[in-house]
């Protein structure tokens, strides 16, 4: 018996390697994969070469809601390069239209003086910007390590079970929301809520459905701060 075999046997006795099936079973859910193995849909959609070259929308013929225009123009003043406002500007368009629709992108492009293609490249990269209609209310359940160890998969399943046909709510898992101290948690249209118990899910979904404040006592932005000036 070689020295390598002896070492392998000793190590195997001390730290037995789990069977492959057991290791795989430790992961309860496999994250969805799209074309090319990506977690983001649409990133490799082919370009339509039959279309005319993109142009910047004409302000004279492109109607933009006054509030959206004012918000985007304000965002553009906050960056040395106005194009850096693309992400928040698209988010503003998404809030108004429910998703980054062709109309929303056209309006944002008109105000920012860029081509719609420039913004589509941004919107299709970031998965919090939706290039397809999914539902006006977005519920992201964090599924990263801290939340996963505290029942994130069960929480996401419970939220989805509570949804009814016709609910304008998009619930999905999210890689990480950076709020490990309130795991398991979720973001409801940007409002961080947690920790969420399974028996609170029916109340939470009903509040979301009715447009009410979701679990107010568990919202991160309502927790008291050590800074006395930060507490309203």
TrEMBL record:
Ranges in coiled-coil conformation: none
Q: Does the keyword Membrane apply?
A: no
Domain of life, source organism: Bacteria
InterPro entries on file? NuoE_dom, NuoE_N, Thioredoxin-like_sf
Q: Which SUPFAM superfamilies match?
A: Thioredoxin-like
Q: Which UniProt key words apply to this protein?
A: Iron, Iron-sulfur, Metal-binding
UniProt-annotated stretches for the region Disordered: 210-232
Organism from which the protein derives? Svornostia abyssi
Query: Gene3D superfamilies, from UniProt?
Result: Glutaredoxin (3.40.30.10), NADH-quinone oxidoreductase subunit E (1.10.10.1590)
Record's protein name: NAD(P)H-dependent oxidoreductase subunit E
């Amino acid at each position: 018996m070689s020295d390598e075999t002896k070492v392998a046997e000793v190590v195997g006795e001390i730290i037995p390697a789990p069977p492959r099936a057991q290791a795989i079973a430790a992961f309860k859910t496999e994250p969805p994969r799209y074309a090319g193995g990506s977690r983001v849909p649409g990133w490799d959609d082919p370009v339509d070469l039959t279309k005319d070259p993109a142009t910047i929308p004409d302000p004279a013929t492109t109607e933009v809601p006054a509030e959206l225009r004012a918000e985007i123009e304000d965002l553009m003043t906050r960056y040395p390069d106005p194009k850096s406002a693309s992400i928040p500007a698209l988010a503003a368009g998404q809030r108004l239209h429910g998703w980054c629709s062709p109309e929303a992108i056209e309006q944002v492009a008109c105000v920012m003086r860029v081509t719609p293609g420039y913004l589509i490249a941004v919107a299709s990269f970031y998965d919090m910007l939706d290039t397809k209609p999914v539902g006006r209310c977005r519920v992201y359940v964090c599924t990263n390590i801290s939340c996963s160890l505290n029942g994130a998969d069960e929480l996401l399943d419970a939220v989805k079970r509570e949804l009814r046909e016709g609910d304008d709510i998009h619930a999905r898992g999210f890689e990480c929301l950076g709020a490990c101290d309130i795991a398991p948690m979720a973001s409801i249209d940007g409002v961080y809520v947690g920790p969420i118990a399974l028996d609170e899910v029916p109340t939470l979904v009903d509040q979301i459905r009715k447009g009410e404040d979701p679990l107010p006592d568990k919202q991160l932005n309502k927790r008291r701060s050590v800074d006395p000036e930060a507490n309203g």
